[in-house]
């Protein structure tokens, strides 16, 4: 059990290293990949944090395992399809593999994202207040041009935040679940 947990952590860290090292090559490019089975603990909708007692009960347990978690943003597919109000949710995420080992508590705040074929695209969300579903316009156009169907809520893994001469950057690797 112990070895397996650390093997998965090593694999996760290698994923982040590889993706971060490839930012310049992958930024705004599109690939078709297999998505990831996730358990998402929603804690924020747009700029509003959930302060419910039930969330505050399990959040500390999840945070004690932070080294195994990812920061994930999801955008409701209806937001993209209807080009409606800019809606998104931030979550702490745990792969199914890691959940089997850690057995973190699951309640009404935890949602499962099933693995599926996905359009993958790395975006730079810029600084605070710049996050918008239009970051995925290129991916949505690709889906439309190839007659694919968006079948689930797009989700993105926050790879890194950094500063450069051009300002603040938030690099998010998005997955858009599709039916081909």
Give structural notes.
The protein has 180 residues and is α+β, with helices and mostly antiparallel strands. It has six helices and ten strands; from the N terminus they run H-H-E-E-E-H-E-H-E-H-E-E-H-E-E-E. Strands 1, 2, 3, 4, 5, 6, 7, 8, 9 and 10 form a ten-stranded antiparallel sheet that branches. It is globular, with a radius of gyration of 16 Å. The model has no long low-confidence stretch (mean pLDDT 91). Helices cover 32% and strands 36% of the residues.
Provide a compact summary of the structure.
This protein has 180 residues and is an alpha+beta fold. It has helices at residues 2-21, 23-26, 53-63, 77-82, 96-102, 137-145, and strands at 30-34, 38-45, 48-49, 70-74, 89-95, 110-113, 117-124, 149-150, 155-164, 167-179.
Low-confidence stretches: none
Q: What fraction, in percent, of the residue positions are helical?
A: 25-40%
Summed over residues and divided by their number, the pLDDT gives a mean of 91
* H/E topology pattern: HHEEEHEHEHEEHEEE
Task: For the record, give the distance between the C-alpha atoms at the N and C termini, rounded to a whole number.
Answer: 38 Å
Q: Give the oligomeric state.
A: single chain
Derived from helix and strand composition plus strand pairing, the structural class reads alpha+beta
**Tally of DSSP helical segments:** 6
**Spatial extent as radius of gyration:** 16 Å
The largest sheet, given as strand count, sense and whether it forms a barrel, is:
10 strands, antiparallel
């Amino acid at each position: 059990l112990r070895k397996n947990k650390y093997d998965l952590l090593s694999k996760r860290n290698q994923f982040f290293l590889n993706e971060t090292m490839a930012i310049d090559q992958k930024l705004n490019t599109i690939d078709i990949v297999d998505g990831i089975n996730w358990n998402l603990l929603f804690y924020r909708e747009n700029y509003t944090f959930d302060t419910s007692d039930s969330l505050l009960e399990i959040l500390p347990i999840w945070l004690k395992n932070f080294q195994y978690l990812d920061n994930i943003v999801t955008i409701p597919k209806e937001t993209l399809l209807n080009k409606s109000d800019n809606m998104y949710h931030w979550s702490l995420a745990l792969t199914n593999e890691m959940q089997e080992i850690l057995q973190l508590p699951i309640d009404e705040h935890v949602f499962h994202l099933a693995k599926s074929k996905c359009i993958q695209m790395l975006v730079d969300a810029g600084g605070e207040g710049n996050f918008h579903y239009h970051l995925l316009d290129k991916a949505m156009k690709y889906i439309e041009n190839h007659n694919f169907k968006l079948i689930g809520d797009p989700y993105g893994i926050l790879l890194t935040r950094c500063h450069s001469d051009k300002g603040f950057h938030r690099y998010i690797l998005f997955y858009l679940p599709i039916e081909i």
